[in-house]
Design goal:
The protein is about 25% helix and about 35% strand. It has 8 helices and 19 strands. The radius of gyration is 25 Å and the shape is elongated. Helix 2 runs parallel beside helix 4. The chain binds adenosine-5'-triphosphate.
Length: about 350
Amino acid sequence: MAGLSLKYIRKSYGDVRAVENVSLDFTDGGLTALLGPSGCGKTTLLRMIAGLEDPSAGSISLGGRDITRLPAHKRKFGMVFQSFALFPHLNVSDNVSYALTIAGTPRGQAAARARELLDLVQLSAFAERRIGELSGGQRQRVAIARALAQEPDVFLLDEPMSALDAKLREDMQVELRQLQQRLGITTIVVTHDQHEAMTMADSIVVMSQGRVEQMGTPQAIYHHPENAFVADFIGKANFFDGVTEGGNVRIGQHLLQVTPPANFIDGSPVRMAVRPEKAMLAGADDGNRLPAKVTFVRDVGPVQDIHLDTPIGRMIVSDSESGQPLRVGDALQVTLPADAIHVFPRLSDQAAA
Ligand code: ATP
């Protein structure tokens, strides 16, 4: 069972509108990441799904049943939070079986389930250890095993990797994803880390200021951002402000071809985005060729980030192919392929660059 669905969910704290009109259908058996900058409302949304906060408006349903007002302990949702909140006085096995024992499961049966789960998270050898004797990554796996003990319908995690160092975090992302896929459990992970979301998720919900900006696969969100916020938040992008002219974009003297044509009336203010790896230093002349001057070169192994001054503004080009040694002050040509240009309406509160 899953079929978790949110309809017009809102949450206000006094004047603060933490979540505004969010409607989402979560993929059964999939992992969805709620991604966005600090304060965008992702934790509040997760807490409402968990039943730890009441929505100010809207409804939450599971398998067609309205659970909006169902208390957290009746939801059968597994949860892992930033601080794993394990019981320090219990050993690993008892931490995992605790909820089962409290719910009245016979001790032997609860212990057997704990063994099964510790096996799943590769901690069988640590069953008797105290929590204080574990590393951060091991604690996190105990928290995951504990959350899975009652075979939850939905698995919720809030920044589960934030206490771990960078290397361990990457390993745990892969481990958690593999475990989730093996179990096929509908999972929602809150994160502000786009790499974490890209590594683990089937589907990413990008949030800003309490709203959903876009929901889609990591690939769709990266390659087809629906607005400038998403293009900026996911991956890197060069931005340029201009106005539309015959489906193309005019920036000063330069008319840049875009494919498909920008569908706005002439003279509309737009913001154009180009990914650094899509701009080319030695591309075909398709009309979007610009003279450029190198202002900075950052060599990071397989990729060079080349900072350029061009007549339409500054940009960064990530070049993994040319191999040509470039120096500050070098003059060259840069090509922006017409189909690599994303065009978004420029809102009135976005000043022209
Ligand atoms: P972070 O990544 O920093 O945890 P977030 O995206 O999870 O941020 P929330 O914690 O959901 O954001 O907060 C959303 C907004 O609601 C913020 O402006 C926050 O200050 C506000 N907020 C959250 N909880 C409360 C509360 N209990 N009382 C008042 N305001 C709150």
